[in-house]
Amino acid sequence: xxxxxxxxxxxxxxxxxxxxxxxxxxxxxxxxxxxxxxxxxxxxxxxxxxxxxxxxxxxxxxxxxxxxxxxxxxxxxxxxxxxxxxxxxxxxxxxxxxxxxxxxxxxxxxxxxxxxxxxxxxxxxxxxxxxxxxxxxxxxxxxxxxxxxxxxxxxxxxxxxxxxxxxxxxxxxxxxxxxxxxxxxxxxxxxxxxxxxxxxxxxxxxxxxxxxxxxxxxxxxxxxxxxxxxxxxxxxxxxxxxxxxxxxxxxxxxxxxxxxxxxxxxxxxxxxxxxxxxxxxxxxxxxxxxxxxxxxxxxxxxxxxxxxxxxxxxxxxxxxxxxxxxxxxxxxxxxxxxxxxxxxxxxxxxxxxxxxxxxxxxxxxxxxxxxxxxxxxxxxxxxxxxxxxxxxxxxxxxxxxxx
Length: 403
Prior knowledge:
Argininosuccinate synthetase, chain A, domain 2; 5-stranded antiparallel β-sheet; 12 helices; 14 strands; alpha/beta
């Protein structure tokens, strides 16, 4: 237990990771380097720095990774139209490989022996962190306190905190009863009354979105400009990837867009109920599919839909750095060369409706062929008879055999 000299801890500044910081020092007699990634979670960043210093971290890394997160992780995932089990936009899942990547890099920078995280032994995050770390640094040592210590209840955590002088927020007004995770893409809620899948979430739980009933009575139009499958402008204003997500979160949030209440299958085998707010991601997915509907070949689009569940499962289960995800990404990215143009959407009381799409140079929609009016010979309708008969041949043969 004492063979570790220095460990890099993924540190949020919350109760669990503050206890872990002290527990590592006490149990392994080692230096603890803290790493806090700013991926858009809000006002938790500077307090984490202060707490890490207060609790004796030997080095403190607090880094703004918002643009890298949006550009290199969220946007590639949305090129795939990824949805886990048809509903979850993978907001927590997609953040873990970036955090793990930077943890491993800080190990090399500081000469540390190991990394540590605060994920529990019941959840998905332990898998995501550790698969990523092993993929990037095969011989890395990983310390997962929740799988080692006996502090397996909140009462024991609080008792440990009191004994070691770690401040605990007790009965603070407004403190959430939920386990929450937030970044540029989403905010999630688990625990509390949500552990009963029959119980409706309390209205005050939601933080990013108004209820659809309270949303404005007038619809709002938004136009997204795509270049090679990525949004580069909102309402003609050029924005960076992180700025796109921030803007769409703001727009979607005020119209009650992006709430989800899901029972999902965790990789470790159990079912779990979680609630999510992903306003910007919900708008982005709808718009991206609309842009692809105009610019992708039919069979390419259908093939993408076939591989999407596999891609989503790889992200959910922690295989971002796997060769199979990277292979799929190359195929997906190659399909996005001509996904260029503008999509117009109407937002109203929780709904996102595509009302227009255009692409000046890459559209495969030909109004001369698609028209119900006279097409001036652009399409020979008589050709359809032979097409249908050829495709019906096996059906006719089978039918004759059943006589």
